[in-house]
Specification:
The structure holds two protein chains of two kinds.
Chain A (H helix, E strand, L loop, with lengths): L2 H12 L5 H13 L1 H20 L7 H14 L1 H4 L27
Helix pairs in contact in A: 1-2, 1-3, 2-3
Chain B lengths: L1 H16 L3 H23 L2 H20 L7 H18 L18 H16 L2 H12 L4 H8 L3 H26 L1
């Protein structure tokens, strides 16, 4: 195989999208040709670096909740099925000298 | 497997149409991290990506009310995400927002260096190269799915992917060279 043919198929080779026979022909070429071997190895290495090096931010719960509220507001038919948030009522703080109220049940 | 998920998501979309918020939440939390990560990598900063995230899901659910394109919900979301990111990249900015934040605490130096090099290398690539690399090599969409997302043919995606990988290799080697 000529270098130009190999370069043409290198992408498919790396994604293992060629027939077994063609994969072997390219492998043979890569063993003999340092320039093509470097091309294949360096691209594969860059791909690996990309996978390991990309940032993976996560959606925080407050951000997710904010967006979901926004969606619910945007679609009135959905908003109707969303349960309203009950306001939380806490027992009043005891005044000085008073016995503290019962702790909230868990 | 993939078909099972497609059917399940079609049912979730049907439930959303009837007003089931639980279905919205399931679809949102299933893909929110992936869409945020994709937008952050494409735009190069997290603040813009968070705004895009909200816009993507709004547009997606708007679309679910009527016509929905063929293919998986995920591929469809990424198609919307890509369009939203392109719109945002075209907007003139009063202030330039750089980078997507500080590295997390506890990361070792080599990891931070790699992340910085990758971020800078991606920024140097044309948008379409960045997109095809992120979709195929990071999100692991197939060439066919990527072609659907980008509205291109499969051979054109494969050709572009190879050029993008080569360009990334060159950009990374320059970034790496700059730092040593």
């Amino acid at each position: 195989m000529k270098c130009a043919e190999v370069r043409e198929l290198l992408g498919n080779y790396m994604d293992q999208e060629l027939t077994e026979g063609m994969m072997q022909r390219i492998e043979k070429h890569l063993l003999r040709c340092a320039a093509c071997a470097y091309e294949a190895r360096s691209i594969e290495q860059a791909r690996e670096m990309l996978r390991r090096g990309v940032e993976t931010p996560m959606v925080s719960e407050p951000l997710g909740e904010r967006i979901l509220r926004h969606i619910a507001e945007h679609f009135p038919h959905v908003q109707a099925t969303r349960e309203p948030q009950e306001p939380i009522s806490l027992p009043p703080l005891p005044l000085e000298g008073e016995t503290p109220a019962e702790p909230l049940p868990k | 497997m993939e078909n099972g998920r497609e059917h399940e998501e079609a049912r979730l979309i049907a439930r959303f149409r009837t007003g089931d918020m639980q279905a919205v939440e399931t679809l949102f939390w299933r893909y929110a991290d992936a869409v945020l990560a994709y937008a952050t990598r494409l735009l190069g900063n997290r603040a813009d990506a968070e705004e895009v995230l909200s816009e993507v899901f709004l547009r997606a659910f708007e679309g679910c009310m009527g016509y929905r394109a063929e293919g998986t919900f995920k591929a469809w979301l990424f198609r919307i995400a890509r369009n939203c990111c392109i719109d945002r990249l075209r907007q003139p900015r009063l202030l330039s927002v750089e980078d997507s934040g500080e590295p997390a605490q506890g990361d070792d130096t080599a990891e931070i260096e790699l992340r910085v090099a990758v971020r800078h290398a991606l920024k140097r690539l044309p948008e379409e190269y960045r997109t095809v690399l992120l979709l195929c090599d990071v999100e692991e969409f197939t060439a066919k799915e990527t072609a659907e997302i980008l509205g291109r043919s499969v051979p054109s995606v494969k050709g572009m992917l190879y050029r993008a990988r080569t360009a990334l290799r060159d950009a990374l080697s320059e970034e790496w060279g700059d730092e040593t």
